[in-house]
Automatic annotation (TrEMBL):
<dbReference type="InterPro" id="IPR017551">
    <property type="entry name" value="TriPribosyl-deP-CoA_syn_CitG"/>
</dbReference>
<dbReference type="GO" id="GO:0046917">
    <property type="term" value="F:triphosphoribosyl-dephospho-CoA synthase activity"/>
</dbReference>
<dbReference type="InterPro" id="IPR002736">
    <property type="entry name" value="CitG"/>
</dbReference>
<keyword id="KW-0808">Transferase</keyword>
<comment type="similarity">
    <text>Belongs to the CitG/MdcB family.</text>
</comment>
<dbReference type="Pfam" id="PF01874">
    <property type="entry name" value="CitG"/>
</dbReference>
<keyword id="KW-0547">Nucleotide-binding</keyword>
<dbReference type="GO" id="GO:0051191">
    <property type="term" value="P:prosthetic group biosynthetic process"/>
</dbReference>
<protein>
    <recommendedName>
        <fullName>Probable 2-(5''-triphosphoribosyl)-3'-dephosphocoenzyme-A synthase</fullName>
        <ecNumber>2.4.2.52</ecNumber>
    </recommendedName>
</protein>
<dbReference type="GO" id="GO:0005524">
    <property type="term" value="F:ATP binding"/>
</dbReference>
<keyword id="KW-0067">ATP-binding</keyword>
């Protein structure tokens, strides 16, 4: 079965996408991200950055373990397309947990890609829903479906008061108002659509250099994204320091590299 893909660019990366290719595309995305070098503080080809428990090989093993699951997310989205989107998330959770278990087995218990499983699982399900409905696979339509699938996830999972110790995600939201990956999904990946992709597309158009475009996109995300991983490691002070340094570099016309 072939899926017509329509992107915002005049020359789409893929004019036709078979449903079974989704896992391969996700694997390519994950490996491209992991191998992008240099990435300050992050695992790349040169070193493990600020991480003590993971390296590039762990990310590669993790990718091999989780990418095949994306077709399962796609099938679930396709099979439940007639249901209201907000009723599908609970059906996706068991897939996410099983995928995460495979990741942890591949990495000896290290969380390399939990956030990626969440994001790509939702994207895969959203694509499956659109295909079942006969709708074109446009960037904004896919992101809108993710927003619908994730509707009220922040309120349901981060806002509710409960007994016992708060998770890191609950602490970030209830203490600092940072909604993390859940908030990004519920917004239909607003940061990606309004910040990351415009920078990436502009640099590719101006320089015809995908590697440079990815590095510049990373720098912009470091400057403006409220990264809860940074908060976990260095508190708000750590987040603000990274943002300020990245913004300073951008204002001076600099780039990573």
């Amino acid at each position: 079965m072939n899926v017509s893909v329509v992107t915002e660019r005049r020359t789409p990366a893929y004019s036709s996408l078979a449903a079974g290719e989704l896992s391969g595309l996700v694997a390519r995305a994950l490996l491209t991200e992991a191998r992008l070098t240099p990435k300050p503080g992050l695992v790349d080809i040169r070193n493990s950055g600020a991480h003590r428990d993971m390296d590039l090989a762990a990310f590669e093993r993790s990718t091999t373990a989780i990418a095949p699951w994306m077709e399962k997310f796609f099938i679930m989205g396709n099979n439940t397309a007639a249901l209201a989107a907000e009723n599908v998330l609970v059906m996706l959770r068991p897939l996410g947990m099983a995928c995460e278990n495979d990741m942890l087995q591949a990495t000896n218990g290290v969380n390399t890609h939990r956030g990626a499983i969440f994001a790509f699982g939702l994207l895969s399900a959203a694509i499956g829903r659109l295909l079942a409905r006969g709708e074109p696979l446009e960037q904004n339509r896919i992101c809108d479906q993710v927003a619908r699938l994730s509707r009220n996830i922040v309120a349901h999972e981060l806002s509710a008061k409960k007994a016992g110790k708060l998770t890191k995600s609950e602490t970030h939201f209830q203490c600092y108002g940072l909604s993390g990956a859940r908030g990004e999904a519920e917004s239909g990946f607003r940061t990606v659509r309004t910040q990351a992709l415009p920078v990436f597309n502009r640099v590719v158009q101006e320089h015809d250099d995908t590697h440079l475009a990815l590095l510049q996109t990373l720098l912009h995300l470091m400057a403006w994204n409220d990264d809860t991983n940074l908060v976990s490691r260095g508190g708000l002070e750590g987040l603000y320091y990274v943002q300020q340094q990245a913004q300073k570099l951008l204002w001076q016309g600099g780039r990573i590299g």
